[in-house]
Amino acid sequence: MLRLAVTTNAETFARVREPLADRGIAVDHLQAKERSIPLTDDARAASPDTDGDTTLDDFDVGLVYPGRLMEGAAITAGHEFPWVNGREAVLTSRNKAGVLATLADAGIDVPRSVMLSNPVDESVVVDAVADLSFPVVVKPNSATRGVGVAKADDLDSLLGVVDYLDLVHDFRATGDKSYLVQEFLPDARDYRVMVVDGDCVGGVERRLPEPADGRWKHNVHRGGEASGVDLPDTHRRLAERVAAKLGIPYLGVDLLASGGRLVVGETNARPTVDTADKYDDGFYDRLAELIKTTAATG
Asked: Does domain 2-84 sit in CATH 3.40.50.20?
């Protein structure tokens, strides 16, 4: 049986394990964070690199490269199994600004956005948003799950948020010192569309429970609820186009429908897998085929 390394032990791991086992793929957890990592042969011999009976050398393929890239490089050194989404795919998707610029250059509609790379003077921020109307959205360039995303209703509020970012970015160890300021899309319908090996395999609509009490972020990890939805063909084809442009075989594409526009908000090369009933029939068949192809050709 093919052995698949999955570096999360949360929702995705629990949901994919049995369906993939039914398709000849044994799913095991590869712990890639919150552990000690031996770096030399003698240290590896004295320290297990497994959560159970499966060692790194037993894996044939990985699903998604570890999200903590530094740990990923240390753990996978000397182990040549391929990943469905490798390091470059994770890096590409994580860079929100890079994704938006690439898609905009391809004629794909994205929110009007500007990237700011700290440190910059306040005047640079003011000039950067001169063509945007308030409210605006401020978000860290490489965070996920809606972490750090804020809405600013006026220039003073925006500059206040920027002050906090300046404080965080003042630490020398901070890696990504960039952030985005984007147009706010009112009353947007929020979709996470899944693409596997170039084809849309369904998706969910994310909504806040009623009453929303002034909240506007639909992320599931922020209290939103994901419901299976019959996606329009326009949504499917757009998500497929995004995945093809970025060259990522297993991708979550976030779409926002607002005011007659359908725009790409961002992408996720480490998407959480929802329950199977929220995707198209054959979702796991397609995912299993992609995993097996990666193992055979990687």
From this structure: yes
Question: What is the torsion angle, in degrees rounded to the nearest 10, for the CA atoms of residue 154, residue 157, residue 159 and residue 163?
Answer: -170
H helices of 95-193, in order, are: 96-105, 122-128, 155-169
- What pLDDT digit, counting tens, does each position of 40-77 carry? 876 666 665 544 445 777 899 999 999 989 999 998 88
Identify any residues that bridge with 191 across adjacent strands, giving them in sequence order. 205, 255
Residues present in the chain in total: 298
Domain 186-281+290-297: CATH superfamily is: ATP-grasp fold, B domain (3.30.470.20)
Helix ranges (H only) for the chain are: 11-21, 41-46, 69-76, 87-94, 96-105, 122-128, 155-169, 233-246, 283-297
The CATH label, of 3.30.230.10, 3.55.40.20, 3.40.50.970, 3.30.1490.20, for the domain at 112-183 is 3.30.1490.20
**Alpha-carbon Rg of the chain, whole angstroms?**
20
CB 142 within 8 A of CB 95: yes
